[in-house]
Specification:
Structural class: alpha+beta
Strand order of the largest sheet: 2-1-3-4-6-5-7-10
Largest sheet: 8 strands, mixed
Number of domains: 2
Order of helices and strands: EHHEHEHEHEEEEEHHEH
Helix content: 25-40%
Distance between the termini: 33 Å
Radius of gyration: 21 Å
Shape: globular
Strand content: 15-25%
Number of strands: 10
């Protein structure tokens, strides 16, 4: 799902319309469910997504809360939002999708401009570059992929990854343990990309230009069955707070945002973040170059 800047405009408009006091009658006594759908309708103009098969939008009322385009369509071949520039993107694309395009298809696609064309045998980097192309000037994307996406060098994938790092788009990489999903036991990772790593006082972000955070969370989590692992709320808070502490500025306001999220927030150092061997490391572009781009793991 992608969220663009029109969401804020729509929300402000709706608040302005609701300013006059309502009469205290039964018509204005809305149930929680009705209020929830009202909120969803206010967000809808700014939330975008894709559905590839007819009927998918019926699941969970997705079409009610998001603009899924006019027709079911393949994201790569019939983009329903060609001009969209999103402030936030969240995605869980299919892992390691094979034969997603033929050798003579999409070879000159504008979404790959400046990069190698993603290989036909795996769509992972096609998804990544598609999302990069959709980000606004200050856009941020977070998505989950198979762990292999961090180290593969197959048919130009390593070159694409290196260019993403050199272009200073990779904000944070998180390696997660395997057995988290019911459908696959392979380990996965989280990618966080940012079009701008400049300091942002309004969001409480520090200047992260030329830096990338790596978190190795492969040993975190607890087995809840013979084949299933689970991340507890404490586990999730530790990982999230590590990233937030690294990203946060050192001002009182910026650090307050981080520490308000959990008692597990790192608190050492001016910004609340310090490298922890075997768990997390903040690396400069020069350090990444020295150790090769495909070794983006905590040291």
């Amino acid at each position: 799902m992608a969220k663009d800047s029109t969401t804020k405009t729509a929300s402000k408009t709706m608040r302005a319309k609701s300013t006059p006091k309502k009469k205290a009658d039964a018509k204005n006594d809305k149930s929680f469910e009705e209020s929830l759908w009202d909120s969803a309708n206010r967000l809808r103009p700014g939330v975008h997504g894709h559905h590839v098969q007819a009927g998918q939008d019926e699941f969970g009322g997705a079409r009610t809360i998001a603009n899924l385009g006019e027709v079911p369509a393949d994201t790569f071949f019939k983009d329903q939002h060609p001009d969209l520039k999103a402030d936030y993107i969240m995605a869980n694309p299919p892992f390691n999708m094979k034969d997603w395009r033929k050798a003579n298809e999409l070879t000159k696609d504008s979404r790959w401009d400046g990069y190698e064309t993603p290989p036909t045998g795996n769509a992972n980097y096609g998804w990544i570059l598609h999302m990069v192309s959709k980000l606004s000037t200050h856009g941020v994307a977070g998505f989950v992929l198979a762990n292999g996406s961090m180290s593969t060098n197959t048919t130009g994938e390593g070159t694409i990854r290196q260019k993403l790092v050199e272009n200073d788009l990779v904000d944070c990489m998180i390696a997660l343990p395997g057995q988290l999903f019911y459908t696959t036991q392979i380990p996965v990772c989280l990618w966080f990309l940012s079009k701008s790593k400049k300091a942002d006082k309004q969001r409480g972000y520090s200047n992260r230009e030329g830096k990338t955070l790596s978190i190795d969370a492969r040993q975190i989590g607890s087995m809840i069955s013979r084949t299933q692992k689970e991340l507890t709320e404490t586990d999730i808070a530790r990982i999230a707070d590590t990233y937030h502490a690294w990203r946060s500025d050192s001002s009182v306001a910026g650090l307050a945002r981080v520490q308000a999220s959990s008692d597990q927030s790192p608190k050492s150092g001016d910004s609340g973040y310090t490298d922890q061997p075997g768990y997390c490391k903040s690396a400069t572009l020069e350090e990444i170059r020295k150790h090769d781009v495909d070794e983006m793991k905590a040291g």
